[in-house]
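Aim 2, interim progress. The first record below pairs a target sequence with its structure tokens.
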Amino acid sequence: MLKITSDSHTDHALTQDHLDFIVSAFADKDAFFITTLELPKSLPGLPCAIYGPIMGDSPIKDEDVSMEVRGSREEPSRMIAKEPRSSRLLTVIAGPHNDEDCILYTAYGGPCAPKEPFSCEEGSEERKKSEEFWSEHALASLEQTKIGVAMNYTNLTPHSLTLRLPDGADVIIPASGTVARVTALPREADVIAGCPVPVIPSPVFGEVEGLPAPLAGYFCLVSGLVLAHVQGRSDVFAPATGPDDGAIRNEKGHIVAVTRLVAAPVRS
């Protein structure tokens, strides 16, 4: 049975829903395997850093790349100054580890690519195939902080938001670290005849906090409550999560992506 342990590499923008899907899909595995499959519609896409023919691109030329050391690796990788793209493919690599028959080694968005040449034995057939592949492929060197329409959006909610585009691609907009909120004025409970517990009046909301001033060409994403108290701001939107808004949900009913945004109310 496939397990996820502390030795599993789960840092490729995988959410808990992705991990739950991997464990469920490969529960019967008890040996080494590598596989690539399409993500179900209920799951958000994942960033893929590969550029080159395997992604439908032209071969990446030497003059378009730089050799950079990634993380703790000892040898440099072939890098291109582009951002990762969203992919609906998921590659899963797993196998035996210590006393476990099968644990997740790693999982990432995009097609399966061979190990880089420096990770292969000198003179081996694996090394030869790796060198051929990486002679025309490269990895994105820019962080996935802005992808397409996400480049001008600031997410002012506590969680990352995923926009499902009409072509099926996902745009992940990470939380900015600032949360826009609406202040609530203090309320006092009152005793109502016939009611066994005190009753408080409906909330009265005050000012919106944490929302920056408008900036031409840039947009903010906020919660529905905040949006309702932001009149006349054409640069502020909230995720459309109503029953008829086309939001994508997983088997548990949790929203994993939205296909529409809601505009702020017009100033009266």
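The second target in this work package is listed in the same format:
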Amino acid sequence: MTAQELLAAYAADERNFSGADLSGADLSRADLRGAILSEANLRRANLMEANLSKANLGRTNLSEANLSGANLMGATLSEANFSGADLFRANLMEAILSGANLSRADLREANLGGAHLSGANLDGAIVADDEEENDVQIISESYLKEE
């Protein structure tokens, strides 16, 4: 499936794109609110500033994807793979990230307010810049513990 095919189907009120292969697709600034993209392949996709609020991306491969400035508010992201993804300034408020792989993800300035992170892998994730010393802070997998 191409990005254009997905956007056309979404515009025609289709919402279920489970298992779609959209690796490397350019979906920047796309409005995909409430889309079902579970188990899809979005590896290296450009989702910069995309609106994925309330979307289901459970078990989706988003490794090395660009999600900077994306709106993922209230999205289901359980067991999704965000390894090496760019989530700079992404809105992840109230997102369900249980069991998600966020290793080496860039989470600087991301809004994680109310996000569910139990069992998430944050090993090596970048969470803040220390501007005074220009030092990047990294969190280890011990940062989160099961509730």
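The first strand starts at residue 125 and ends at 130. This observation will shape the mutagenesis plan for the next reporting period.
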